[in-house]
Design goal:
The chain is mostly helical. It is built from 18 helices and 2 strands. It folds into 3 domains: 3-180, no CATH class; 183-248; 251-355. The protein is elongated and about 65 Å long. The two termini are 24 Å apart. The relative contact order is 0.10.
């Protein structure tokens, strides 16, 4: 998942036209302003969530987000309703980030897009509502807690950075919006992703790596970190060093990423083979083995560093919706639920616990 692209894709051309008309600006300007505001807001949220207190504040804000209004943005952004919606997003961001950070955020975006204060505030408010709404979906769909929500944003740093227009990242950092360690966190994220590439590529050649599409996106984002200006050199060095390193998710010589891949691919195959009560009964031992495999992964995860656990959490979180969908389809087959559900429930509880480290 690229969270920036996911949010931007919500803004259909007709909605963008309506937004531009309501703000008295061109559609092109509205599009470029939103394209800057959405990753900027996500980056600010990620920086806020870098501490335990900030992660809890973000989780609380996201938990209270109104996702219903996002179902029909065209109607939501009409007239006074649209103005209230954007104002509400601005208020949520003020409560979460504070007045100073929000002032720095809107000022940097307004300068980047060439907009006045009123239009910029509306754009930032809309970006805030969309970001909160998308994160709320991830919380609900992935069963996330404050820690794993922070981990999800951390895993998206490469996508966020690559989406920021040139120079905006530096402006936001100078304004204190992205936090003092934004560059360091980004460098570590690129470093971890690059070190995982070797395992990802090896698994891909055997046709078993269902996570392979995630890793290249993170690695490719390394180049985007040059927008940090003088800090770009250190990020480049980190990426170059990481490119030749071994896998990142290793504990006691065991490749946790490879173990995760094997376990989840086996589970997908097992679930996909269930078509009736008889095949469900035959698949039950393999499902029980999957529970044991997750227990083993949990034990290995406890030996990972905090950065590694965050990365592992992000990978599992990205896969949870697909896994839940597969299990739901299996349980909907007549006669299968009674056979599979107890083991499936135990399995999902363990997987969600692994994705949400305490």
């Amino acid at each position: 998942m690229n969270i920036v692209s996911t949010i931007l894709n919500m803004i259909a051309p007709a909605i963008l036209d309506k937004l531009a008309a309501s703000l008295g600006i061109s559609t092109t300007t509205a599009k470029s302003a939103l394209a800057a505001a959405i990753p900027a807001v996500l980056g600010a949220m990620g920086s806020k969530a870098s501490s335990d207190v900030g992660a809890r504040a973000l989780f609380d804000a996201v938990s209270n987000a109104d996702t219903g209004a996002m179902g029909d943005l065209g109607a939501t952004l009409t007239g006074a309703t649209g103005a209230d919606f954007m104002k509400g997003g601005l208020g949520s961001l003020t409560s979460l980030l504070g007045d100073n950070a929000l002032t720095g955020l809107t000022g940097a975006i307004g300068k980047q897009a060439g907009l006045g204060a009123a239009a910029t505030s509306s754009i930032v408010g809309l970006a805030g509502q969309l970001a909160m709404g998308q994160l709320a979906k991830s919380v609900t769909g992935g069963g996330l807690n404050a820690s794993s929500l922070a981990g999800l944003l951390s895993s998206q740093q490469g996508n966020i950075a690559s989406a920021l227009p040139a120079g905006l990242g530096s402006a936001l950092s100078s304004a204190g919006v992205l936090g003092g360690d934004f560059a360091g966190q980004a460098s570590r994220a690129v470093n971890d992703a690059a070190r995982t590439a070797q395992a990802a590529n090896a698994a891909k050649t055997t046709g078993t790596n269902w996570l392979a599409w995630i890793i290249p996106l993170l690695i490719a984002a390394a180049a985007a970190w040059y927008f940090l200006g003088s800090m770009g050199h250190s990020v480049k060095e980190a990426a170059e060093q990481a490119a030749g390193s071994a896998t990142a998710l290793v504990a006691d010589g065991v490749d946790v990423n490879a173990q995760l891949t094997t376990a989840f691919d086996g589970l997908k195959t097992t679930l996909g083979g269930i078509t009736d009560a008889a095949s469900a009964q035959a698949a039950l031992p393999k499902l029980q083995e999957a529970v044991t495999s997750v227990d083993g992964l949990t034990a290995m995860a406890a030996k990972l560093t905090p950065t590694q656990r965050t990365m592992l959490s992000g990978l599992i979180t990205a896969a949870l919706p697909t896994l839940k969908e597969l299990i739901a389809k299996v349980l909907a087959i007549p006669g299968v639920g009674d056979i599979v559900k107890p083991t499936a429930d135990a399995l999902m509880a363990k997987v969600e616990a692994l994705a949400n480290p305490a």
